[in-house]
Amino acid sequence: MLAAVIVVPVATTFVANPWSRNRARCPALVSAPWLAGAAASRTATQVLGSQHIAQQARQQEEEDEEDYGAQKEDYEDVEDEEDAADELGKIYEKDEARLAGVDFSAAQQLLEAICELKDEQYIRVQRIVRGWLRSRDVEVGKHEFVYVMRRLRKRKRVKHALEIADWMALSRPRPFTLTTKDNIFRMDLASRCGSVGKAERIFERLAPEHRSEVAYNALLLSYTKKKKRGRAERLFKELKATGTISSCYSLNLLASMYRQLRLDAEVLMLAKEAQKLGVELDMCFYNLLLPAKFRVQGLEDVEKLYATITSPRDRTRFFTCLAMANIYVSAGRNDKVLEMLELIDQGMEAGTIVKQRRRYNVLISMYASLEDGARVERTWERLKQQRQPNTEDYCCIIRAWGKLGHVVRAETIFQVAEANEKSLKYSTVFNAMMFVYSVAGMREEAEGLVRRMEYELGVKLDPWCYHHLVLLYAKAGDIGKMLSTLRAAQACGKKERRFTPLAATLWAALNTLADAGDVDTAEETLTRWKRSGYRVTTGLYNRLLRAHLVAARPTERFVERMLADGVVPNGETEKLFNELKMKLS
Q: How far is CA 355 from the centre of its chain?
């Protein structure tokens, strides 16, 4: 079966941290008889000429976006021309005069010094700034820092950029005079960092006449990022009352939040709201509207909506084609999936779609799901022609060959990746190879790779390594090794939070125990998980309930246990309860 590569449309970049892998939970309590009575608990000479400088800056930023915009594995983080719709990132764009006096050499030195920090070392930014200022022989202007902040923001180092903004705003005496534009940009950075309180405080201190649409959207970003639906809707209502909505950006934010909350009908309502406001929908919104309409109204209505997009450029945008491809995947129309992927492929070759390495990776993964090895090979060769593959590229092609069952070809690519010393420092490439062995059921090879990682190379096993091992043992029917590996993953997570095991790993173990009808072991496994302090989900409880169903054993206070753990039953829970009731009757 073809599996969809889920890629979030561009508007998602406005709402959520791009590296985040969390999924929204839908708190919809099923109303059913079986729930009755359940209690709801819970560098160089400065370039002269402002026009040339502005052009140089924009060109450098485009290069940075290519270099730094694709550093994570998850395809949810792919971006589609973010600046085209991100008005908050453009609040300095018209101020070309600011670039005339910028010492780009000095600003670049500061930028490079900050980028040497790890993500979690953002607290050191202000110390670096003060040291950099002491080393300067000439006076530094505000726009050097604005330049650095914008570049950091493009590189997704928003916490580092916010530290500079806070230093500019909170230092006494203030080093520079800040304008409303500066405060709004700081509010945007706070929102992207998830600091709702800070964003609210900045907004409240703005004079009423300075609370523009851009200011409202900066605060709205913080609410939608944290999925605070009530606050977001109230703020949007307040924004509508001002009569200043001129763009679709606020609607994009709300639609992205609704998508994460799986409120597809609300996305459709936003489209009607845009008509009332006289706001023209942009392609960011369409990329959210298409899948929502498919889930609510079906494929026929989606194709009618896609037909209304008359611009050839818009119809062949990367995210639009990919959204349609994923819809066709869900509808089982593989011929249409291939048609959309071909549009992307042709657009990249023709230059109408920007050639980014991660877009090649998406194509590789999708072609692998279509079991089209020839196109996988062709796309990989084109990627290599663009630039030297990095760790992410190697992982993608290794997994693709694994999906296609070409273990030898995957091992060949893995050996090439191993030649890169940087790849050996992390478990990412090894995880890709573990995936191949897991799919192929090659237990000895997987265990040998793990021993090599731990004892020869000193690479620590991460949650994905444990996950693939658990899947491998589950597939082999070795319950003992599966559970011992799961316990090792839990112990590793307790020592270091960044190694917290995946809920999907427990899900796979519980599913295996459910197939065997081993209720006692499943109960014990879930209890150990909770005692370790890890979150439980509805799906995990449903696996446990399925074990009761297979074993034909009644449950006791099952729903109350779920609610006590903050877990809400869903439609699958109801279905399993009904099947269990029929089996016991």
A: 20
Per-residue tokens: 206:
């703005």
CA of residue 381 relative to chain centroid, distance: 27
Listed residue (163, 72, 69) closest to 125, CA to CA: 163
Give the closest residue to 543 by CA, choosing from 531, 529, 324.
Answer: 529
* Residue showing tokens 């209690």: 39
By the 8 A CB rule, do 165 and 149 touch?
A: yes
Q: Which two tokens stand for residue 338?
A: 């291939």
Q: What's the residue count for the chain?
A: 585
Q: Is 41 left (phi over 0), alpha (psi -120 to 50) or beta?
A: beta
The predicted-structure confidence for 272-284, as pLDDT tens digits, reads as follows 999 999 999 999 9
The whole-number pLDDT of residue 23 equals 32
A 10 A CB-CB count for 180 gives 16
How many angstroms separate the CA atoms of 259 and 14, rounded? 13
Q: Determine the straight-line distance between the first and last CA of the chain, rounded to whole angstroms.
A: 36
Q: What is the pLDDT of residue 97?
A: 47
CA–CA gap between residue 167 and residue 162 (Å, rounded): 8
The verdict on whether omega for the bond into residue 173 sits within 30 degrees of 0, i.e. cis, is: yes
